[in-house]
Amino acid sequence: MKHSEHHDGKLRDKDGNPLIERYDPNERTNHWITAITFVMLALSGLAMFHPSMAWLASLFGGGQWTRILHPFAGLVMFVSFAILVVRFWHHNKFEDGDKQWLKQMDDVLHNREEKLPKVGKYNAGQKILFFVLLASMIGLLLSGIVIWRAYFAFYFPIDVVRFAALLHAGCAFAIICAIIVHIYAAIWVKGSVGAMVRGTVTYGWARKHHPKWFEAVIRNTKR
Q1: What pLDDT was estimated at residue 219?
Q2: Which residues of the chain have pLDDT under 70?
Q3: Which residues pair with 19 in a beta bridge?
Q4: Which residue among 168, 182, 209, 210 is the active-site one?
Q5: Which of 38, 54, 92, 115 could form a disulfide with 130 if both were Cys (CB 3.0 to 4.6 A apart)?
Q6: Burial per residue of 185-207, b for 16 or more beta-carbon CB atoms within 10 angstroms, e otherwise
Q7: Is 182 a catalytic residue?
Q8: H helices of 54-157, where?
Q9: Sign of torsion, CA 136 142 145 147?
C-alpha cells in the first residue's frame, strides 16, 4: 500500500483514504537495525552455544570470524536498542487500564477488542515485552563484557566468568522467546508489520487496535 501526501497536507493511500503516521523514517531505520543485528546475534550465538549448531558458523565465515563478529554486533544492537528505548520510553509507562487489559486476556486472545479498556500507542502486553527486552539487553551487555575473552575476561575470576556465561545464555534464551512472541503478535494483528515497513496505518486500524492513541493523534492534528 503506497502512500502520498495529499493537497490538504494529509497522508493518504493510493485510493485517497487518510492514513496516520505511526513510525517516522528514523524510528523505522532504528527498529530494523536492531532487528537485523538481533538475527545475526541469535544465529552466531547458537553456533557457539552447542556443537550440534556449529554449522551456523559457516554463515559468518567460520568459527573464528563468528567469535570475533558476535560481540561487536552485540554492541551495535545494544546501542540501537538504547536509542529505541529513549524514543519509546514514554509510550511504555504503565497507565490506568493496563492491569484490567491483562485481566481480560481471554478477550485479547479472541479479538474482542471492543470489550477491552482503551489502549494507547502500546497495549499492556507490548509494554511487558518492552521491559523484558530491556532487562535481557542489559543482562546480555554486562555478561557479554565479562566473557569477552579478547579484551575483558582476564580481568575477572574464573567463577565470575562462568556465572556470566550462564547469565548470557539465560538472557539470550529470554530475548529469543520474547522476539518470537513479538513477531507472532505482529503477524497476528494484521497491519502491524506494514506499520513498521511503511510507517503508516489506516484510521480504522488505529481506531480498532489503539483507540486512545488514535484519539490523541486526531486531537493534535485538529489544532
Answers
A1: 85
A2: 1-10, 13-16, 222-223
A3: 202
A4: 182
A5: 92
A6: ebeebebbebbeebbbbbeebbe
A7: yes
A8: 63-88, 98-103, 105-109, 124-146
A9: negative
